[in-house]
């Protein structure tokens, strides 16, 4: 799978996620629904194509660049955030804490699974 095909697949899944969210009214971001659709597609496919895997690894290496639009958006809406900075800060801290806990639990589960007899 060439790089452009892999990127197109990622964008198509994101678009389909947006369509699903708008049609169903689900209270989740479209890209998240797209990721779940990609996960389901890969489970049915049985493996991750090499080109998709390599493209995703390359994107993850440069993940910080993907945060630039987010930071620019925050600066654009800095006025309303200045009035609501305490809930925003608490939401950020809570999100980080939940991410750390979820990562630790997932890691522990995977570690136990890999050490299980017969694996």
UniProtKB/TrEMBL annotation:
Entry membrane topology: Multi-pass membrane protein
Keywords: Cell membrane, Membrane, Transmembrane, Transmembrane helix
A Pfam family it matches: LrgA
Source organism, top-level taxon: Bacteria
Membrane-crossing segments per the record: 33-50, 62-79, 85-107
Cellular compartment(s): Cell membrane
A GO cellular-component term linked to this record: plasma membrane
Keyword Transmembrane (UniProt): yes
InterPro entries found in the cross-reference section: LrgA/CidA (IPR005538)
Entry-linked PANTHER family: HOLIN-LIKE PROTEIN CIDA, HOLIN-LIKE PROTEIN CIDA-RELATED
Protein name: CidA/LrgA family protein
Species per Swiss-Prot/TrEMBL record: Pollutimonas nitritireducens
């Amino acid at each position: 799978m060439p790089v452009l095909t892999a990127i197109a697949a990622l964008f198509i899944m994101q678009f389909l996620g947006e369509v699903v969210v708008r049609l169903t009214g689900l209270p989740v971001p479209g890209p998240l629904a797209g990721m779940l659709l990609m996960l389901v597609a890969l489970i049915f496919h049985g493996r991750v194509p090499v080109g998709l895997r390599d493209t995703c690894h390359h994107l993850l290496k440069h993940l910080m660049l993907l945060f630039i639009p987010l930071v620019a958006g925050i600066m654009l809406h800095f006025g309303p955030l200045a009035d609501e900075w305490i809930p925003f800060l608490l939401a950020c801290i809570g999100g980080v804490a939940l991410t750390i806990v979820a990562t630790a639990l997932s890691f522990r589960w995977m570690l136990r699974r890999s050490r299980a007899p017969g694996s």
